[in-house]
Amino acid sequence: MTTDATPRTQAAAAAKRTDAEKIEALCLLIVGGMSKTKAVKEVFGDGRKYWEATAKNFDFQYQVAQAQEIYADALVDEAVDIADTDPDPNRARNRADVRKWLASKLKPKSYGDRMELAVQHGINISSTIATARGRVISKWADRSTVDDAEIVAPSDLQLSESNPGLAIEPDIFS
Q1: Which CB contacts under 8 angstroms, 24+ apart, belong to 101-109?
Q2: Integer Cα distance of 19 and 44 in angstroms
Q3: What distance in Å separates the CA atoms of residue 105 and residue 17, rounded to the nearest whole number?
Q4: Cα-flanking dihedrals φ and ψ of residue 167, to 5°?
Q5: pLDDT tens track for 100-141
C-alpha cells in the first residue's frame, strides 16, 4: 500500500483532525525543537486558526506553554553538551549563549536574568501604637486638670524693645 504524501493530502488529513489532536502535534513539534511560529504554520496552516482553538480551550495554551518549558530545559542541556564537547571555545560560547538566551525567553522564571525577591512577613505594630497613644493621651489628660490659671489679654503683654513683634512673657511668679 502506497501513501500519497502530497501537500494537498496532508492538508486534507490535517483538516480532519480535532483541535486537541492538532495541539498535541504542535506540542510534539515544539518539544522536538521547532519554533512555535513554524509549528503553528505546519499544523494549523494559519495562525488565526491556532488562536481560535486556544481561545476556545485554555488548556491548549497551558499545554503549549508546558511544551515550550520542556524545550527550554532541553536547550540548556544542549548548551552544556556544546560547552563540554566543541573543540573551538569561541564557537562553543556563541552556540551555548544563543541557547541560554532562548531558554531565558521561553522559561524566564528558571533561566531569566532578573532575580525577584518576595518577602512575605507581616509586622504587627498595633500594640506599639496603642502604647504611644496612651502616653500622648495621659499627658494631655494631666493638662486638663489645671485648677488655677489666669488669662492674660494681649494688650497686657509688654513688647520687647529690641524686637517689637516679640512679646515678653509676664512675670507670673512675682
Answers
A1: 102/72, 102/75, 103/72, 103/73, 103/75, 103/76, 103/79, 106/68, 106/69, 106/71, 106/72, 106/75, 107/68, 107/69, 107/72, 107/73
A2: 9
A3: 31
A4: -90, 145
A5: 999 998 888 888 887 777 788 888 888 888 888 888 777 666
What confidence tier does 77 reach under pLDDT thresholds 50, 70, 90? Answer: very high
What secondary structure letter does DSSP report for 158? E
C-alpha cell at 147: 485648677
Q: For residue 52, count other CB atoms closer than 10 A to its CB.
A: 12
| pLDDT per residue as tens digits for the range 12-60 | 565 678 888 888 999 999 998 888 889 999 988 888 888 888 888 888 9
Give alpha helix (H) positions in 17-125. 19-31, 36-43, 47-56, 58-85, 89-106, 108-111
Q: What angle do CA 131, 136, 138 make, to 5 degrees?
A: 90
